[in-house]
Amino acid sequence: MKMYKVGGAVRDQLLGLPVTDVDWVVVGATAQDMLDLGYRPVGADFPVFIHPPTGEEYALARTERKSGRGYGGFVFHASPEVTLEEDLLRRDLTINAMAEDDDGHLIDPYGGRADLNGRWLRHVAPAFAEDPLRVLRVARFAARYAPLGFRIAPQTLELMHTLSASGELQALTPERSWKEISRALMEPTPRVFFEVLTACGALGVLFPELETLGDSNLNSLQLAAQAEQPLTVRWASLLLGLGEPAVLALSQRFKVPRECQELAQLSDRYAGQACRGVALGPQPLLDMLQAFDVYRRPQRFEEFVQVCALALRAQGQQPDPLATQLHDLAAAVRGVAVKPLIEAGFSGPALGEALKQARLHAVADYCRGAA
């Protein structure tokens, strides 16, 4: 039995980047061997084990063959006879197909180190074209490593074209697709992810709605990444101006988390109004604040302010005056106290109406002062 550090840990170590997760391949062992050593099994598709003290993943060396459509359409074979080189051959990119032994020696049968030095994202073998998920993965790696000068090898981009035209992308599950999309959105240059999908013909298959958007959306998304905004803001920035029906359709198609979907929908509905600031008028402004539930969910409104600010900045406009107004308006309505209204004798529906009117007056007072 031999254990090798593999994949991203080896790649990032050679690039001089921080290594956060370490994966291992075990050659010459059976599942029972791993259990006897106290490793905890996880997953049902292939034998992966967790090392109890470290939490790191140890997978038995395996091969795979295509057996159906989509990401899950593979049959895996793991046995003590599978070699390290056979296991590495099934991986997507050469830079992910390197291993390191216990003595720190690099095992690099497919030229991964040369591609690291040359800044190439290159497929390991023609079998790359059997897995549609690799279109999203390579685009995500491009978004991660673009600042280091990495680009996709022409032959690999050609295989991605083939996959995009094959109909295989439609067989991807929403959950697996969103995992790659969300990770790509959180990379340093997320706009590159969508540029790569456009270049290989996948954008029109996976995101046909996005083909109608202008470059300002990708600029907003990139600005959100530079500002280290959360996933919710990045998703809403990407979809801003798409129209609520399309935002909803995209979010449902990929089973996007509820907080991302809600912010994207509300941002699309109200960003145009919000950009008018106090000129919009007290009642529409109060309606907008109510829609975001600024009383119980202040963070969601703060994220909306960021979406608006990023959109303005992407268009070359100064966002600070608007952001200040929106923050002040939210503070004005939150500052309306309920206790004086109760002491004045209001209760039930009458209390609700009196509170609404008090908040409207607070917004109107602010608008007059800011005009």
From TrEMBL:
Amino acids binding ATP: 8, 11, 91, 137, 140
Name of the protein: CCA-adding enzyme
InterPro entries according to UniProt: CCA_bact, NT_sf, PolA_pol_head_dom, PolyA_RNA-bd, tRNA_CCA-adding_enzyme
Gene name of the record: cca
Species: Pseudomonas quercus
Cofactor: Mg(2+)
SUPFAM superfamilies: Nucleotidyltransferase, Poly A polymerase C-terminal region-like
Domain Poly A polymerase head: 4-122
MF terms in GO: transferase activity
Catalytic activity: a tRNA with a 3' CCA end + 2 CTP + ATP = a tRNA with a 3' CCACCA end + 3 diphosphate; a tRNA precursor + 2 CTP + ATP = a tRNA with a 3' CCA end + 3 diphosphate
Domain tRNA nucleotidyltransferase/poly(A) polymerase RNA and SrmB- binding: 149-211
